[in-house]
Fold each of these.
Amino acid sequence: MSLGTFIYTLVNGDLVGTDEFGNRYYRGRGRKLNGRERRWVVYRGKVEASKVPPEWHAWLHHTVDDPLTEKAAKARAWQMEHQPNLTGSPEAYRPAGHEYKGGQRKRATGDYEAWSPE
Amino acid sequence: MPKLTIDGEEIEVEAGLTVLQACELAGKEIPRFCYHERLSVAGNCRMCLVEVAPGPPKPAASCALPVSDGMTIKTDSEMVKKARRGVMEFLLINHPLDCPICDQGGECDLQDQAMGYGTDRSRFLENKRAVEDKNLGPLIKTIMTRCIHCTRCIRFATEIAGVPEMGATGRGEHMEVGTYVEKALTSELSGNMIDLCPVGALTSKPYAFTARSWELKKTESVDVLDAVGANIRVDARGPEVMRVLPRNNDDVNEEWISDKSRFACDGLKRQRLDKPYLRKNGKLQPVEWNEALAAVGAKLSKTDSKKIAAIAGDMADCESMLALRDLMASLGVPNLDCRQDGAKIGGGARSGYLFNTSIAGIDDADALLIVGANPRLEAPVLNARIRKRYLMGGFKAAVIGENVDLTYPAAHLGAGPDSLSRLISGEDPFAEVLKKAERPMLIVGMGALTRNDGAAVLGLARKAAETFGMIDGDWNGFNVLHTAASRVGGLDLGFLPGEGGRDTAGILSGADSGDIEVVYLLGADEIDTSKLDKAFVVYQGHHGDAGAHVADAIFPGAAYTEKSATYVNTEGRAQHGALAVFPPGEAKEDWAILRALSAVLNKVLPFDTLAQVRSKLAEAHPVFAHIDSVIAEPWGDFGADGAADPAPFKSPIDNFYMTDPISRASKTMAECTAVARGEVLEQTGTDG
């Protein structure tokens, strides 16, 4: 969080809630923007937009008036937990056969059998 | 010459042509299934109907109708279109319309022509005819329900291949094409039926369901699995050669290639050398290029040049042979040989090791003497050319050597050189035939020249050629039939023992006795490698075959589909092959490896690019400056006098399907070998 955002949040922000990742969501006091109240998030750790879970995403984008935290709490057993985009990180998806996954892949067309001395 | 009017345009054509050929000359495309320019006219598909006046008021099959003066032909009239649509509808009645799962899809004549003449729906509501598939061996897959009875395959087997094994049983709707009694085809050219089949009834078994024609990258190249130098098209997808098809060249292979050339390409994916190896502590270890080159360079510079030798193999390209020759010359090595089979040729006149008549020239010959060759196995496409000449009539052939079926009648005059001597002295009745012939020709094969008395046999053959007037003005009837694609190129480049140098036999015995310490094998595998145990062997090649097993250092090279290279065929025709896929792993183009080695030795070869190598080639021998043409060679001195051993000639090819590292690595060729030896007729379904 930059110093400007920190001061702006301190002066204008009303904390609405915090998600399971520790990101804090604020509502602006006073002046509206385009006829709506201002809503923003202060990330915990690295600034990464995909860290916002869906229940807060909907609120943040003015799709709903209140965050869907109650609904999210009643999530079904088969619903997966929210996961930020891992591209570029060590946990990023890599197909089987990738060097980082051992480099062992199934036979594909175009493979050749190399000669070996024994 | 008859004048005719085709679609309102007047054209004058040669007498004796058919209406279809005349239309073709006029630039009108006539759809056809059964007609093929290299086969006899059958006239049974009725797709080539045109409207002809004067004549009965009905469409006529143009492929079987000779032209006559004053004909008016309409190829595009309403009547013609309606007739062709009718024919197409009848053909499609019993055709399964399984294009999405058919290997011919995308290159199918029926599919293409149905676009022009087919309707969008069928009026046929009854059951379609179904025909049981035939087993034609390990190369040709049959889906006989798709057959439209054009009889091209039957005519090919009977006329071109000369094995009348295909035929039709039943008539009308009940006609079935097959081999009568289920058997594998015994022709070396059977793969061409796949190309000829206008539908998907005969397709390639090894290629089945592996690729679609439109996803393949097509590269025009030259075949190196025999010495004919057939023109081929290499179809590749990504790094994989999917199939090899013939390319039209009337002077060489017409439009046929042998089964080995076509189907051995799966051998390119097995037993490949893809990284450099060096023997350390008695074991071959994979190493980096720099290390391998440095080790070989150190060994070569430490060794006395008289104790170094180089042998070029059967598939070596001219670029790499030139590079190796020049490298060895810069080291002062006299022990070079490109004749790993020990043939006693080269050194003399160029006409002494060429197929001087040229392959197209066979058509002009009227008598043929074959000495110690089995062209059916050594050069099947060339043999088909001889058969074509035989079918034209007025042609007599005789064989001295093995008495085998060559697909055309040939008198067997004897088995060994003594029969040739008898013929020369006129004791044999065939001598009269040769004397009377206006353009007699003689083919002497490697079965006669690789013997210890090869030079004497070559001298005898030369004497025979001169005795029977085979060298007469423009006509040169003396022919050497090679079995290796690299041989003529090697001989042209003078890849031969220098002053006081050893030939292949000398190198091998020298390596055995310790006189030769370093042997450089450029893809040479068909030698007695057990004699190389004591020497330091450098093997440069693409397959882990006999040579790689005795090697102390291995440089992985490129196979013929993986490099742009020059080969000279048995006629002395230099042709460029092209790179279709890249060499696997760390393998490199062969001349580039030798160029790198020369830099390590501080004897840098004077070229850095392929174009520079080729200009050096052109300097080395004029044939390389005249790509794809045959230069007539003057008759000169070659061969030796002397007594020949009366032992019978024996063809060097025992098993047609396995003659080189690529075909030996091929699974398809292994299956063919098993079938040819009568071990199995490939079993399918519950049998297997």
Amino acid sequence: MVVSIAFWILAIVGVAAALTVIWLRNVFRASLALILCLLTVAGIYVTLSADFLAAVQVLIYVGGISILIILAIMLTREVQRGSPANKLRIPAFIVAAIFLGVMIFTLVNTPWQVSTLPPLEPTTSALAGKLLGEGGFILAVEIAAALLLAAILGAIVLVREK
Amino acid sequence: MTIGLEHYLILSAILFSIGLYGALTKRNAIVILMCIEIMLNAVNIAMVAFSRFVTPTMLTGQIFAIFIMVVAAAEAAVGLAIIISIYRSRETIESTKIDLMKW
């Protein structure tokens, strides 16, 4: 019962925050709404009993990526001009609405094979075993490390003063 | 009324559509990146919901979500660096005016 109340509150606040990101013309306020949306996604992870992912969401998105976005907004100084829509507003709305309708139709009409087992918690040690243990995703973890290193180097090279 | 898999998937679809609309219509490149972050988060919600309701003891969906977060962090860093670099050379980040490679 608590989970369903929490889900409805988080879902409504999250969708409202995502809509605010699109509606607001002020880019800085839109970024603040984006941070609220990311926080509600962390709450959604908690209702799905994914505790480690909720902590990672707060650390990476709310702590890291939002700071990067705000820094980029400050550095580009286009806050006053805002973020007006381009000429594609109506076609884009139609595309998004058709996509949403098809998705909801498919989701409601698919017989999902829902398992009745209780979820695993806490998930941290199980995730560590999957990621780093025998027969897990260790190669993908190494590739992710290389990808992050390449991204950091690329960002430094791109913004360096000539 | 208990919250099931469909509720999470529909929430994910709604957030993805909002992000799709924003990414297609906005002129400011930073707002486009923000909408892409919303779309990635919507996909993550779907992944974790499948992991919770379909395979509750395997956690594969949560591992996919972790890798999506890694790629999203790399994408945000490089994307914002490209935007700042474009702003330095062209004094604008309006996506309709960055048309050097348009035929």
Amino acid sequence: MSKDRFQGHDYYQIDDLLTDEQKLIRDTVRAWVKQEVTPIIEDYAQRAEFPKHLLKGLAEIGAFGPYIPVEYGGQGLDQITYGLIMQEIERGDSGIRSTASVQSSLVMYPIYKYGSEEQRRKYLPKLATGELMGCFGLTEPDSGSDPGSMITNIKDKGDHYLLNGAKMWISNAPFADIAVVWAKNDEGKIRGIIVERGMEGFTTPETHDKWSLRASATGELVFDNVRVPKENLLPNVEGLKGPLGCLNSARYGIAWGVIGAAMDCYDSALRYSKERVQFGKPLAGFQLQQKKLAEMITEITKAQLLCWRLGVLRNEDRATPGQISMAKRNNVNMAIEIAREARQIHGGMGITGEYPIMRHMMNLESVITYEGTHDIHLLITGMDITGENAFK
Amino acid sequence: MKILVCISQVPDTTTKISFVDNDTRFNEDKVQYIVNPYDEWYALVRALELKETLGGNVTIITVGTSAVDAVIRKALAIGADDAVRIDMDPSDAFSVAKSIADYATGKGYDIILAGKETIDYNGSEVPGMIAALLNLPFIALGSKLDIEGNSAVVEVELDGGIEVIKTTLPAVISAAKGMAEARIPNMRGIMAARTKNIEVIPGTASALVGVKKFTLPNAKSAVKLIDPDNMDQLVELLHSEAKVI
Ligand SMILES: Cc1cc2nc3c(=O)[nH]c(=O)nc-3n(C[C@H](O)[C@H](O)[C@H](O)COP(=O)(O)OP(=O)(O)OC[C@H]3O[C@@H](n4cnc5c(N)ncnc54)[C@H](O)[C@@H]3O)c2cc1C
């Protein structure tokens, strides 16, 4: 890939709404991404390999559990800072951001929120430093948008649980040390349980041939009569609200993250359109191209304001799932549209690995599907405003 | 090793430059500030490296109003132990150098480090003035700095060669590219910076010179492309239009 000349874009001076520390952290992660991620990411994506050597650096810049309290190894930071970290990492690549999202919101968050004090002390500090990596098992071959239909189950065997079933599309599965798995108990209630690599009967085959999130490792979790100690059950939650609580946190991070991908595409398109001359003038001088660029920065600015406000609400613990759905849906769609338009502005160059556009565009096809599809988030908003359930 | 590092804030390199008040003042509206790269990447990082190998303390000092606190926090996040802010508008090199020299007097610093210049006004005046005011040796443009016993050994790049200079400590040294490699702060450093002390003191000197007027350079004119087969035309244009031959 050519040299990373990215600059942030802040058309509405939203930086004035951020604290000095939030800006320092954002700029630090931006510098780290320029130094560590962009020089190598295209190569890893082309080879469909996760750059595992980045894990240590991700931990050092605070990407793992930034909002988890300091006493459990986190940084005790606010939600806007968490969002800004996700934005900058996804500016580099959605796959790397996915790893950070999963570790923070889908592994550390449930252990912190629903776990026992022993579980918090045992796992959280090591997850924060990346010494332990985690994954989150909710989706199954026959249970995607409708997680309540899952068949993975735990049976109470007195001194342990017996876990059976399979999860698919699980980010980080191929290398994770632990998995937060959602399974039905004897009464058919959904419970969370921590499964550790090495437990007999637990395997994590990798999913190959993806055209999206190629620099992220995705796999299955297969449980064949796995004996899980009783103390690994997350004691403080029961039912779908367990996984949905985690998803709220992750979706919020995604709403910020995709602004990074969108800014990278816009930034590259803006620069390219000023430098590329056709018919005797730069592409940027043609009305058709200006329309695309002007609409991109308009949409990015709206997405930034949406996220900033949502961050304030989350800091005050007032953000509703409906508000989070709206932001995830709007922002991912905004980013994917910008990636597609930016790809065209780059002409033929846009399909090559010289520019980040095509990689972002393909990555966003996963992002618009996982953590609740584009359709599902619309149905959540629809149900919220009408009171009518259109899922079934 | 007790080290004082002078840092200043400068506009981000992508800033669009304009002036206000009848072209006497830089227009700060919408400007993002960063730590002057020569101060941060080379002077500060080398000071931290020396502290890491020899022990001691690294204090950063800057002249400015509370608007510069953000860049001070960044320098603290990279690893400086504490900071001093001289609370006044840094309007000329003398008032800045004199205020810093007055602060440093009697504090026992072994080395005072600064960047070779700031990337905004590029004056390169402050470190030399501090040395003069404190009656200390001064080495400008160091691209390598080592400590041998009670001396500093500094490499300075010359056109095509290198000059190695030695001086006893204490000394004032200005840092050029090569003295160290830029460091990105980590989260631990950013968190630690929250509780590090910034001592705020008043300035002790006023400006001796002031800006009368700024003008921007002329806009770059369009490039003329000449066919490689048409050397005569090139020579003719260099002679008649560019007037360089
Ligand atoms: C790269 C990648 C990584 C992932 N990582 C994880 C992970 O770490 N952990 C995890 O648990 N899961 C993960 N997932 C799974 C992801 O969350 C699911 O793919 C997603 O929830 C959609 O489920 P599905 O693929 O089964 O699609 P389906 O649910 O079968 O949906 C197919 C289509 O039907 C639409 N649809 C479904 N129901 C309705 C309805 N009621 N009304 C209208 N339209 C509907 C959907 O919008 C979609 O367009 C990942 C997926 C991908 C691609």
Amino acid sequence: MATRETPGLYGYLAEFREPWDLIDAAAKVRDAGYTRWDCHTPFPLHGLDGAMGIRGTRLPWLVLCGGLAGLTLALLMQWWMNAHDYPFLISGKPLFGLPAAVPVTFELTVLLSALTTFFGMWALNLLPQHHHPLFNSERFRRATSDRFFISIEARDPLFRGEGTREFLAGLGADAVEPVED
Amino acid sequence: MGILLTRDTIDNTAHDPARPQELITGGYDFTTLTDKVCGIVERRGAPRAWWVALGFMASLAAMMFGMIGYLIYKGIGIWGVNNPVGWGFAIVNFVFWVGIGHAGTLISAILYLLRQQWRTSINRFAEAMTIFAVVCAGIFPGIHVGRVWVVWWLFPLPNFQAMWPNFRSPLLWDVFAVGTYATVSLLFWYTGMVPDLATLRDRATTKVRRIAYGFFALGWRGSNRHWHRYEKAYLILAGLATPLVLSVHSVVSFDFATSQIPGWHTTIFPPYFVAGAIFSGFAMVMTCLIPAREWYGLKNIVTLYHLETMAKIILATGTMVGYAYATEFFIAWYGGNPAEQFAFVNRAFGPYAWAYWIMVSCNVVSPQLFWFKKIRTSPAALLVVCIFVNIGMWFERFVITVTSLSRDFLPAAWGYYRPTAIDILTFVGSFGLFFTLVLLFMRFLPMIAMAEVKTVMPQKHWEDKVSRPVGDYHGTNPGDR
Amino acid sequence: MSQHARRDVAVLDGDNLVLGGAARRIVAIGLAVGVVGLGSGFLLGRAAGDGMRHFLHAWLLNWLFFLSLSLGALWFVPLQHLTRSTWSAVVRRLAEIVSGTLPLMALLALPVLLNLGDIYVWADPTRVAGDPLLEHKAGWLNPGFFTLRIVFYFAVWILLATIFRRRSLRQDATGDPAITAGSERLGGPALILYGLTQTFAAFDLLMSLDAHWFSTMFGVYWFAGIVASFFAVMTLLTAGLQRSGRLVHAVTLEHYNDYGRAMFAFVFFWAYIAFSQYMLIWYANIPEETGWYLRRQQNGWSAVGYALILCHWLIPFAGLMSRFTKRRVRLMAFWAVWILVMHWVDLFWLIMPELSPGGIPLRLMDAALLVGMGGLYAATLALVAGPRLLVARRDPRLQASLNFENY
């Protein structure tokens, strides 16, 4: 079904002036059953996740793994370097004593968790991306400033060319335009 | 100061508990806010005052690097450090700058978790300041090690002598704590800035700008599927940064408190250092922000309400610092250890009493002015008090470091520490580096977190306008499940 | 996902917001449990044949346990005003009620104050004589001045609790928003007084058990435990009231989520303070300080220490991390009980090694006193709540609190 009616068409872009109109419209796109579509807003709009039906992300689990790796690595490193590979006695402290190992362990746990969060988030978002068809739209430049957009891709099984265009216009969009691939 | 600052015409500090506080004044909407913040960066040619300031600050920074070059050439004998005061300006400056670097993460992480929406106007600026302060802080222990060229031995890297750093040393904990803090602060700052960089990219009129901002904007297109993960990541980073910010200055305090030196070894040090760090950091944010909002016309975005709230935090943390001073004194007497008692009497009445009383009057007495709303809402008065707090917090570190070392257990080993001109010029030069970075930041990057401010603008209160429920919900009662 | 429209304060009209007849029942049962518990504890104490020393230490332990909860409330109420907190507006009245138990706590201080010599080394003149440290401290640690201080702390606490509760109740009647503004102004000075009195109470009541030992952090240590267990009590109170059909519409999962966040944060804060205190003393290794920890690492006491690390920090920390847990009332109640138990163990670890360094002295009277004081505490809560509203019905922030969300 996922045939392209118009070659070279990425999809349709609908522009909204007000955030609450976008949320209402997004709920209708969700209910219409579209799957390959997205909203674009200059800031995170609360209530939109629900209206779009976005499910929770796996990111916290990745971070947990990163943190545990940092924890293990830090403990092993401190033990191996100070108590095993190059043991030396200083100020009567044990070669490997937990109280003295806690600060570095904590820091490395946080460091690896934070790095996982940062890189994990961009990776899951498939960013950085060199180019995206939406950037072909002059209108879309305001998506990062003061306008709110819905884009429905031509690859969506429910995509019907003019039909989709009319559907978007019927949602109260201020403007609907095709976007080239 | 009155010459530099004009009176605020809009006062939004009045508070009605039944209504949300008005955080952005002056009738801004998404369009005009974007124009305002981006306009500062997009303006062709910087104002002359900016060039003058940059020239001055950069030459101070150059002076510091000159001093460092001389230090590497001659060795730390050119400093005032002696026996017994082996830790002098370098450590004092390190702790001072690291402390200043705590406000940014506090504002961006802890206040985020506490849902303090007013943070959005100031967090970008404070985070930038954090990073620059940590840069300044990192220099001092680096040049204090003596043989600067082997400073990489601090890191657990394999080397030809097959030896490893000593992980039982608090000084090494510092390397990890400050290193982690710098990294995480940078990630946090950059993550927050990506949507705003995309705004600058999309507004760019020249190719150079589009490519430069576009490169760092990572192809951000405001996709809500992206925002979803982005917000989760931001929350996680805030959750990680919160204990991290506690840990960093705690670890710095361990440098002192793990020792047996009277006046250093006391268990209150970790939370006391953290409170002091937040205290000094907020004071520095105010010191930079009050002129910046004036000169760049940001008074409707960084409003009097923001300044007043920061003043309250300064008052609260200043009081905590006073609490720690008092506890230390009480326990010094209560503990019954003569060396400890002497250390505290010596602080207040010994050869460094002048430093001690500067510290007390700047840190404990001067913020008490913030009990008065008139002072809290006067930018000029705020600026003056905050500069005093900065001075006081530097002297706090000086008092802790120098008084304890100069007179410890053995009177025969007592000494007096006097900084040399090189010590002082290096320290002054670090301000040059700090403000150079701040000036560059103000010129080339968005000073206000636009995407975040837009979430708290009046226009955003769409809940009242939606006639029927949308996907999100307003509080579920447990019975509804 | 359930969907709700924005809720108006009017939703509370359909809610049961008072204890009503249950108050009398709780008072009656609580009093009965109290009398039986404390009475049997007393008899067990007499039977122990140690001159009531175990009884008095167990009394101190359980008394401080309940005092912690009341002090947590006393910290919470002014803080919410000072920070103009929105989320807590619907539950602040519960905290005000908890802080209303402080007069009972003052009353329960009597057995301690009347038998100082059996609990505190410094109150025993025979042990002070010849001990240079205790002689040095005698100006501070002597029965007269000590009693005076405790009376002073309680006077301050009861005064603060009464002021904030009275003001809030007055607003129920008048609906005057100026009362909120006034409480906000009082919040700052109240917290300063609270901080100082709570610190010195910790030094006096807990730290001076070993009068040789000192730690500047000690006040903060007790504070960390106080706050974690206070939020546990709030969770249990809220869940209990909702189970009994009260506050059903008022309190949402968002409020539980915030209790959970607070417990999570303060479990971690407790660990941070506990670790810092231990590590600094361990590292510097000065005998005048290490003795206190050494006593807690010998003769079986180290097991309690390890249990604290695991169960006061690691396990609840992991358990409360997820948002999933914080939005399930039963799970939250479980962790709340867990944290309360561990706060009791923490106090046990602070107090009991001074009585019995040779081994862990668990006796039946510990439980009897816990149950007895718990009964009295519940009775007092019901008495304080009385026929009055369980929600500050006309607080100007109520509407916002009913609707707030955790993003």
